[in-house]
User: What shape does this take?
Amino acid sequence: MEHLCQNWQYFGMHRAGGYAELVTVPERCCIRLPDGVDAAEAACLPVAGLTAFHALVSVGKLEPGETLLLWGASGGVGNFAIQLAKLQGARVLATTRRSAELSSVLQQWGADVVLPHDPDAVAEAVRQLAPDGVDVVLDYVGPETFPHSWALLRKGGRLLLCGILTGRQAQLSLHLTYLRHLSIHGIYLGTRAELEQLLQLLESGRLRPAIAERLSLAQAARAHELMESSQHVGKLVLLP
Assistant: This one.
């Protein structure tokens, strides 16, 4: 469980070097890329892909035939989560704020149903699609969607939390945890072994990151502008 180390550190957060051409790292923290694997695609795995894998496969234990509700599916985590959920044999209900523009894209990734990101409307639609509730919800939006995520779970359902884009505080009806046998799991990255499994999926062609643009380090400012505008679909990769 390396990701739970008390002394974890990130490049670009705790250590300089996030935008450097060369950095020094402990050898045990490195994974050799197989021949033929695109370095830019591999660069998309360690955060977004690893978060999705750890959430759905290792912690959420998504099973064939189960239904996943995924909020904000057009981002990096969403891209991986949809593909991994389909590899697990699950049905995927996905939301996006840009539904008219991105519905076909998310369906190409594997989403079974794409819904406009309006929490109240999503809740009503999901109740029609899954009258007994969904088995798993992956939520990194936060308080805006948390009440619906909690209410839409079927008995025995699992809520996976890996982000707080809309705040840190949300109300929770504690009695529902035992009346409906629900569980909440906080998700934080994942392990080296999981990353190696992701790399195997990439090498085999069963997993394909969506890359919006490949930019040089000299174009880092452009990358930030794209991120702030939220108009791109997929990952932005900086290359030396």
